[in-house]
Structures are given as C-alpha cells and as structure tokens.
Fold this protein.
Amino acid sequence: MANPFSPAITPAACQAATATLAASGHVRLAPVLPAATADALHRWMGEEAAFSRVLNQGDKVWDLDAKARAALDPQRQAALLDAVHAQARDGFQFLFDSLRVSDDPAERAARNWPVDRLVSAFNTPPWLDLFRTLTGEPAIRLVDGQATRYLPGHFLTCHDDNVAGKNRVAAYVLNLTPQWRVEWGGLLMFHDDAGDVQRALAPRHNALHLFRVPQRHSVSQVTPFAGAPRLAITGWLRR
C-alpha cells in the first residue's frame, strides 16, 4: 500500500524548482502530496482541528484556546484587538489561529493527528532528501511545523524568520485551501529593500511555497468577505 504522505513531486518539477529557488530565493511547487491526502488534510483542518488563537504583544505570545477566548468578555476582546492593531501599525505583529506540532517524534506519534503524521513524514528520508536537493543544503536535519488558519481580520506583518539558535535554512507553507480569490487577501508577500511588494502569492490547494531564510515577507490581512478560511501547514527546514 502506498504511503499517503509520500512526495508527489516529479523529478522534472524538482529540477525546475531547485533552479528557481537558487535564482530567486522562493518557489512554489504543486502538487506536492497525493490528491486524496491533501483533501483529507483540508477536511480535518476545517472540521476537527482544535485551533488556538495566537498573537504577540511585545515579546509575549498569547495562545488562547477556545475556552480562553470564550472567557473574554466583549470589552476585553475589543481592547485586545485594539492593542494588536496599535502594534501592527509600526511593528511586528501577528494574529491567526494555530495548532502546534511537537518537535519530539514520540509526542507526535502519541497524539497521531493528521498534522502530526505529516510533520513526521517530512522528517523521513524521502522528504529530507527532497528538501536538501531543493535548497542545496545537505545539513538539513529537522522539519518543524504547525497547522494554521487565517480567518477574516487575521494577518502577519513583515519579518524575516531569522531567529538566533533556530538554524533555519528555509520556510515552507503548504496551502490546503481548494478555492481562493486574490481579493480575499491572505497573500504571501515578499518585500524588496525599498518596501515594495516584489511578489505576492495567493493560496493554492496542495501547493508548497518554499523560501530561504532570511527573507522579508508578510501575509496580508484576510478580508471580511473572504469565502473560506486560509488553511495551511507551515514551518521551517532546519540544520
């Protein structure tokens, strides 16, 4: 029986993507998983995944599960959102939903949710060898990850992912949203030195966006009229 998490990237696509990543610092590949696997992950994230709301205030990260969010009265919710918007005006700020995945293989195996199985698959030779080939970095030893959900109003301001001690080679975004319009926002945007958007990529189902660290990027705010959540598995390839 075929492994449902085996790479679905052809040798020709891998070769082309390797050249593109080397030349521009970012690339999109599709498809990357068997279609049935991508569809199952999308359904699980949309119907079963237990997301927490994550946001930062200064150096503090808030991780609010459904119970914690329900405990906030409307006034506290409004005050928190005002603080988020105030910090986003001139600094680094994020607001979205996340389901974290452990870096410990035993913890992933014990929980055994679909996202755990995917990240565990990313840490097996077929995927590690693929990531090493794509990036030209043979020292990659670990792939981490989280499930993310962007609802209307969610966003991630400009940053470069370069965190001391994390040993990040590249970031990845595995989008799992079957239908998306660019007008809905949620675009992965790459910034140039002048502050302009160099390239903006809309979510695309079963597509892997891979880009080198450090590189300035953001996720534009999801609009109030977006017709679906922006669902993705995201993380980093690490030495």
In short: The CA atoms of residues 191 and 198 lie 5 Å apart.
